[in-house]
Design brief:
By secondary structure, the protein is α+β, with helices and mostly antiparallel strands. It has helices at residues 3-14, 20-32, 38-47, 54-63, 73-76, 153-166; strands at 105-108, 111-118, 124-136, 142-148, 175-177. It contains 6 helices and 5 strands. Residues 100-185 form the Integrase catalytic domain.
């Protein structure tokens, strides 16, 4: 090993950590806000009067293993498309989303929400809920909805049956519009789906 390399590392081992104060502050903020990523941590440090580079905050949080993993691209996006698993209904709306007739055009989609629970030991656990709302395109009113811990066709069907019952007063043909995901391709859906 060259002498210069040895001396370089010798000095580095004996050196006092120049970021100790920042690390302690980041740990303190993290105790109260476990879901803060480096951007929100950077903003909080700025609010407390510490001038620091955003990349340095990111590097320190990576070093301390304080990265927030719940907002990765894979966990953030829910897609109901699984190919053709049943009958795909024709697109009757054809991007004509506006109407002045109540209960004529109804739209729906499955939305994923995340929530966190903290147990007695202070560990956070992430859970997911799936919302299936049916919205009137005339005024944006939510006619019916279903909430479940898993995306199921039964949840969609229950909300759909409620929407059919509520919109039965419409004198015109009703159209229920969706993204045609797997839950909307089930065989027991009504013919005007």
């Amino acid at each position: 090993m060259p002498k210069a390399t040895y001396m370089y590392w010798q000095k580095r081992f004996d050196r006092v950590n120049p970021d100790k104060e920042i690390e302690n502050k980041i740990m303190e903020i993290h105790e109260n806000n476990k879901d803060y990523g480096y951007r929100r941590m950077y903003g909080e440090l700025r609010n407390q009067g510490m001038l620091i580079n955003k990349k340095k905050v990111q590097r320190i949080m990576q070093k301390l293993n304080l990265q927030v993993l719940s907002y990765t691209r894979k966990s953030r996006k829910y897609s109901s498309y699984k190919g053709n698993v049943g009958t795909v209904a024709p697109n009757r709306i054809r991007r004509r989303f506006h109407t002045h007739i109540p209960h004529q055009k109804i739209t729906t989609d499955t939305t994923e929400f995340k929530y966190y629970e903290v147990d007695a030991k202070g560990h956070m656990t992430m859970h997911k809920l799936y919302l299936d709302p049916f919205m009137d395109m005339c005024n944006g009113e939510i006619i019916s909805y279903g909430i479940a811990k898993r995306p199921t066709a039964a949840n969609v069907m229950n909300a759909l049956n409620k929407a059919i019952e509520i919109t039965s007063d419409c004198p015109y043909r009703r159209t229920f519009h969706s993204d045609r995901g797997w839950a909307y391709q089930m065989g027991d859906l009504p013919p005007y789906w």
